[in-house]
């Protein structure tokens, strides 16, 4: 269970996220929507530790994460994908995933400094990385440098890195941003696969309402940094406050 309690951040006199309290349960995908500047990505940054909160707390499975760094929160089980890819461009696809596997507790564990353990650990890391690449259909690109990959494949690789970290919470910030019409379905298929694991919690910031309608079990709406709606997709999308704050213009245009 991921929970934020009265989570707030102020920049000078501007309140970017205003006392947001929410619980996110395992086995659910929650879409976080709202107009530009509503505080969606800032809320993500507060949860994952990229920004320190002015007030409020973040808890995961009963453990308070509020004072922890972003890397410590990752080790605690928060996996974050960004609008822009966050990869090692000069390393190969396989090396990127193997480093992520190594960063997990199991991957980082060492049984002693001898040649056999070093070789066996390296082999285990590589095999795990290859398994993950197979699950995202990137085995054929394993030796390619990341910088040579098209944007869509880089986004797929970022999902692979998240999977390698074995988080309990997956956080996707506009995962199809910058992707072509042909590339986007691949990422959405990966998220659908992750949804099948009912031990995982998924948070998704997304502007495309067709994606939200299809994937989300729940929608929360932020407007001017404040939580203004929370519920099942059909109920939230139909609510007057959402139509006015976010969907009204799109509906009129349609």
TrEMBL record:
Domain ABC transporter: 2-249
GO cellular component assignments: plasma membrane
Coiled coil residues, start to end: none
Lineage: superkingdom: Bacteria
Organism: Limnohabitans radicicola
InterPro entries noted in UniProt: AAA+_ATPase (IPR003593), ABC_AA/LPS_Transport (IPR051120), ABC_transporter-like_ATP-bd (IPR003439), P-loop_NTPase (IPR027417)
Keywords: ATP-binding, Cell membrane, Membrane, Nucleotide-binding, Transport
UniProt keyword Cell membrane, yes or no: yes
The name this protein goes by in its record: ABC transporter ATP-binding protein
Any Pfam family hit: ABC_tran
SUPFAM superfamilies associated with the record: P-loop containing nucleoside triphosphate hydrolases (SSF52540)
GO terms of molecular function: ATP binding; ATP hydrolysis activity
């Amino acid at each position: 269970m991921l929970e934020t309690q009265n989570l707030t951040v102020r920049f000078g006199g501007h309140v970017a996220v205003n006392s947001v309290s929410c619980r996110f349960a395992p086995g659910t995908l929650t879409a976080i929507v709202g107009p530009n500047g509503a505080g969606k990505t800032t809320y993500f940054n507060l949860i994952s530790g990229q920004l320190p909160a002015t007030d409020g707390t973040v808890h995961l499975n009963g453990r308070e994460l509020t004072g922890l760094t972003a890397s410590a929160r990752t080790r605690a089980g928060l996996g974050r994908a960004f609008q822009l890819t966050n990869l090692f461009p000069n390393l190969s696809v396989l090396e990127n995933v193997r480093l992520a596997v190594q960063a997990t507790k199991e991957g980082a564990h060492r049984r002693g400094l001898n040649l056999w353990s070093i070789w066996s650990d390296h082999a285990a890391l590589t095999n795990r990385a290859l398994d993950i690449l197979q699950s995202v259909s990137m085995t054929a690109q394993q030796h390619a440098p990341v910088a040579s990959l098209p944007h869509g494949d880089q986004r797929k690789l970022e999902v692979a890195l998240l999977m390698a970290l074995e988080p309990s919470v997956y956080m996707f910030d506009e995962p199809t941003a910058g992707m072509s019409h042909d590339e986007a379905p691949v990422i959405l298929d990966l998220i659908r696969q992750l949804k099948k694991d009912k031990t995982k919690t998924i948070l998704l910031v997304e502007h495309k309402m067709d994606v939200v309608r299809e994937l989300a079990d729940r929608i929360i709406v932020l407007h001017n940094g404040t939580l203004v709606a929370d519920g099942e997709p059909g109920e939230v999308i139909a609510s007057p406050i959402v139509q006015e704050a976010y969907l009204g213009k799109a509906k009129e245009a349609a």
